[in-house]
Amino acid sequence: MKKIVILIIAAICVSSAVFAAQPPSVFLKANSSVLAPGSEFEVKIFISSPSPVNALDFELVYDTSALRFSGSSDAGSLIDVWQTKPEETLSGVVSLRGGMVEPFKGDNGLIAILHFRANREGVTEISARKTLIFAADGNGTEVLAVSSPLKIQIQASAPKETIEEPKDITPPELKTIITKAPSGEYLLIFSARDKESGVSKTEARFRNPLGWTEWTEVKNPARLPEGALEAEVRVTNGAGLISTASSNAPQNGSVFVVLLVISSIIIIFVLILLYNRRRKL
Fold first, then answer.
1. Is the backbone peptide bond immediately before 221 cis, with ω within 30 degrees of 0?
2. CATH topology for the 173-250 domain
3. Most CB atoms within 10 A, among 13, 24, 145, 147?
């Protein structure tokens, strides 16, 4: 499942990506590198690449005695197809995985904003132990990016930092597509972006011959249930603003079988009702 997004995006967004001698780079930037214990601060992840790229797989590590990971934001991110938003998969390890509908080439492309809390005085660092970037060449060619750690100094005499809540009056940007994976199953892929407050929740529901299912939180991509006729995605940003988008499912034999069975049941039920009514007359 890990490479599904990469393969699908590589098939949709193909460009002639040939990497130069200089590899892509990943760097971390904090709003302040010297802060007081108890501070809440942001760490932004950026990439620079001399050739087009459209997917990535990162792992960052930090000292849990010095710092606490408290969340993330994708406000202004290049990534619009998240497979794994930044999350603490192991103690002291933050993982993130995703892709871009439009390949990126250039400098200082924002990937994500991580939120941390400073626990105690001392010097600590946040570093990337995995920085896989995938070329937009139609094959998902893996390229190992270079990176360097971010040093953070925590001392009582420093200012106490806080994270300001972003102001946002614009709903998220949202697009959906249903495509067939190499395995033969159909996948719902959605591109969701929000420049101001980021995307906080993604949900989906599916229409089958009996009606709509309930809204449930989904990750990207989501498997299309058997017999689904339509998929709808609902995205909520950090300010609580909502956008929805839908896509019709490709017609397939199993859907027609379901429809045929339901139609047959309805016809039989109607015939029974008519027969019983005639007997009463």
1. yes
2. Immunoglobulin-like (2.60.40)
3. 24
41 and 7 Cβ atoms separated by less than 8 Å: no
Q: Scan for tokens 């005085």, then name that residue.
A: 121
Euclidean distance between CA atoms 207 and 211, whole angstroms: 5
Per-domain residue ranges of the chain: 4-154, 173-250
116: burial class by Cβ within 10 Å (0-12, 13-18, 19+)?
Answer: buried
Q: Quickly list DSSP for 259-274.
A: HHHHHHHHHHHHHHHH
The per-residue pLDDT string of the chain (281 residues; one tens digit each, 9 = 90 and over) reads: 555 555 555 555 544 455 555 889 999 999 889 999 999 999 999 999 999 999 999 999 999 999 999 999 999 999 999 999 999 999 999 999 999 988 999 999 999 999 999 999 999 999 999 999 999 988 888 999 999 999 999 999 999 999 988 889 999 999 999 998 888 899 999 999 999 999 999 999 999 988 999 999 998 889 999 889 999 999 999 999 999 999 999 865 455 555 566 667 777 777 777 767 666 65
Answer yes or no: pTM beyond 0.85: no
Please check whether the two domains, 4-154 and 173-250, share a CATH topology.
Answer: yes
Helix (H, G, I), strand (E, B) or coil at 131: strand
Per the DSSP assignment, residues forming a β-bridge with 72 are 114
Neighbours of 129 (CB within 10 A): 11
